[in-house]
Amino acid sequence: MTTHTITTTWKGKMQFESTNPSGETFLINATPEHGGEGAGLRPKALMLSALAGCSGLDVASLIEKMKLEVADFKIETIGNLTEEHPKVYHSVILEYHFYGANLNEVKLRRAVDLSVEKYCGVMEMFRKFANIEVKILFHKIE
Questions:
Q1: Which of 47, 52, 120, 141 is the most exposed place for a label (fewest CB within 10 A)?
Q2: Do residues 90 and 132 lie in contact, with contact meaning Cβ atoms separated by under 8 Å?
Q3: 28 with 54, same domain?
Q4: Is residue 11 located within the same domain as residue 53?
Q5: Domain that holds residue 80
Q6: What is an example of a Pfam family matching this protein (predicted)?
Q7: Tell me, what CATH number does 62's domain have?
Q8: Which residues of 56-85 are buried (b: 16+ CB within 10 A; e: fewer)?
Q9: Are 84 and 125 in contact (CB under 8 A)?
Q10: What region, left, alpha or beta, does residue 51 occupy, with left being phi > 0 and alpha being psi -120 to 50 degrees?
Q11: How many domains does the structure of the chain reveal?
């Protein structure tokens, strides 16, 4: 069994510094309207970043293994919050954007499907509380 341990330390006011298992750190802060100074990442947005990052790492690995030609790749992640407290994501849309001159759409769809359905643990966690919609978009570059 793998265990991840992080340490999140209060830095004053509404700011925290958090480590991750590799030792990297990042700041977490509230928006100014919630008493923060705006410097740092927001906790709920970090969840969306974790989701996109998890799936993105899967897809990037599969692009390499499948020897696919992709000039660029990004994931736009849109999370919709409930109106009542505690506000949680009730639905999330992931848009996978692939850019290139010679995109193999069938294999890229397969790479995304493998991540979404089999490999991405964060995706599986999100499924416990949110509806997930996946869109795959191809952008031809000449």
A1: 141
A2: no
A3: no
A4: no
A5: 43-140
A6: OsmC
A7: 3.30.300.20
A8: bebbeebbeeeebebeebebebebeeeeee
A9: no
A10: alpha
A11: 2
pLDDT tens digits, residue range 27-54? 999 999 888 888 899 999 999 999 999 9
Can you say how many angstroms the Cα of residue 142 is from the centroid of all Cα atoms in its chain? 29
63 close to 100: Cβ distance less than 8 angstroms:
no
- Residues 116, 60 share a domain: yes
| Residues 122/20/3/131 CA torsion (nearest 10 deg) | -10
Could you read off the pLDDT of 75-128 as tens digits, one per residue? 999 999 999 999 999 999 999 999 999 999 999 999 999 999 999 999 999 999
Alpha carbon 100 to chain centroid, angstroms: 22
d(C-alpha 132, C-alpha 119), whole Å? 15
Give the pair of three-digit tokens for residue 127.
């499924």
- Looking at the structure, tell me whether residues 10 and 51 fall in a common domain: no
112, amino acid identity? V
Does one domain contain both 22 and 49? no
Written as six digits, the tokens of 117 are 């359905």
- 8 with 16: CB under 8 angstroms? yes
